[in-house]
Amino acid sequence: MKNMTKNIYNRYKNLLISLSAGYGRRYVENPAIDFRNRVHNGELNDLSDEEYNQVLDSIREESRIWLGMPRSNVATLVAVMFENIDFTEDDIDKLMDVIYDAYARTDMSAKPDLSTPGNPNERVRFGAATGMAESKADKSAKANDVHKNEQKAEQNYPWDDFAEDESAGETVNEVAGDFSTPKKIYDYLNTYVYGQDKAKKEAAMLMWNHMRGNKRNIVMAGPTGCGKTEIFRTLSNIYPNIAIFDATQFTGEGWKGSVKLKDIFINAQCDDPEHMIVVLDEADKMLESQINSNSNVILQNELLKMIEGDVIRVKTDGPMPEERIYDTSNISFVFMGSFENLMKGKGLNENKNGIGFTGSVKDIDDTDMYDKTITVEDLIEYANMRPEIAGRIDSIVQLELLKEEDFYRILCNNKISPIKKAERQYNINVKMSNVAKRNLARLAMENKRGVRFLNGYIRKNLDDQLFANCQKKSYVIE
Fold first, then answer.
1. What is the pLDDT of residues 34-91, one digit of tens each?
2. CATH, residue 310
3. Is 226 inside any structural domain?
4. 411 and 270, same structural domain?
């Protein structure tokens, strides 16, 4: 039977006290952050390995209800806490008896006004060891104690880069929320990523499962500029343990090349490398490079070990190098790319089987190419993926080719339009007529660079105007 430690008991109790006192919208810092700071500051150096592991296990259990996020509000944490507890019907009856008695003696008019959320910069950290100050019998006194305790949390907060994403024009108040279900994660994605419903749903399921310790590995295949990378770039705003890498830069151990697969643990800008979602962008190019070469074989061997959950030893550089050990059993992998050669090879093979060796790779039209369903066997036959790796892929997601109308709608969308992003970035007004948007959308479809082309075109046009005169408040893009 799992025992509830005193720290977990105090933490859950403090959350209930805060919720009861009317602070349901206050943000509470994940205890894993404070633990990490203590480790970095050397405060736990005197502990034995056994003692350290006991503290680590306790922190992991305490932080479970944060779902991998650096902070969440009190109401959400209490909801997740209850969702993860198996109540019997008798438990519910006893709990309702307590609630009924408390309800009878409560003056509802004395409750704080919750019409607006608390200051998102008031990030709360409850000390697990000491707990919150003892509550008073009087409700208002208890609320004051809670508030005083919350004011202590403004020191050593290591998530400044996560707290505000300037590129998206969002504040922490917008990205911090309840992402405890796949649907809520999908809804967030749906706000900032255009189209590609299947891919967004699959990404939401992967992240939801991953935050609960259910490792998943998926392949995302789609044409350039259709939003593959943007999906996980957007998710990284709400889940800090997403690391995106250009897979073409990796070389096998013992071969020339400055970046090795193990380096993802050193280079990843995330809080917990052992619980990453590793996104390998251009993974198809990595698999195809130097096909059947020793370097490729070594690289895929190393990748297979990580996918299987091996322990990786990494030596750091610098004047005082050290060896660090990472357990990869909780890391999810996303293989992302256009997989163009796979699609063309598959299409060519089907043409040969159907019309008698008259087809060629050039005969495969891009608009039809991505209509074909990719299978695990295709990954092995056409993408040079090792059968052992392909066999550990839980899902293959194919994204759609964006059309002219899609690009036009993106330009008109206030949340995701590169026009609106430029306005937020420079604090200016950018005007673009519907005719100009239509023309740009057609160009984006014709050159097959997707949303990247929209971003590049608007950035270049605006840069030229800003260079000529950066004092204006309004600019026009033709």
1. 887 788 777 888 888 888 888 888 888 888 888 777 777 788 888 888 877 888 888 8
2. 3.40.50.300
3. yes
4. no
- The DSSP 8-state label assigned to residue 116 in this structure reads S
Cα separation of 306 and 62, whole Å? 27
Residue 329 burial class via C-beta count within 10 angstroms: exposed 0-12, middle 13-18, buried 19 and up: middle
Higher pLDDT residue, 166 or 216? 216
* 458 shares a domain with 379: no
Span 88-145, pLDDT tens digits:
888 888 888 888 888 888 766 544 444 333 333 333 334 333 333 333 334 344 344 4
Q: Could you tell me which of 18, 74, 43, 37 has the C-alpha nearest to residue 157?
A: 37
Indicate the number of domains in the chain. Answer: 3
CB burial of 136-150 (b: ≥16 within 10 Å; e: otherwise) equals eeebeebbebbbebb
Residues 353 and 368: their CA atoms lie apart, in Å, by 17
Using N-to-C axis directions, what is the helix angle for 197-211 and 182-192, rounded to 10°? Answer: 130
Residue 230 in domain: yes
**Count of C-beta atoms within a 10 Å radius of residue 218:** 20
The residue segments making up the domain with residue 449 are 404-476
User: What is the chain's Cα-based Rg?
Assistant: 26
- The reply to whether 150 and 248 lie within a common domain is no
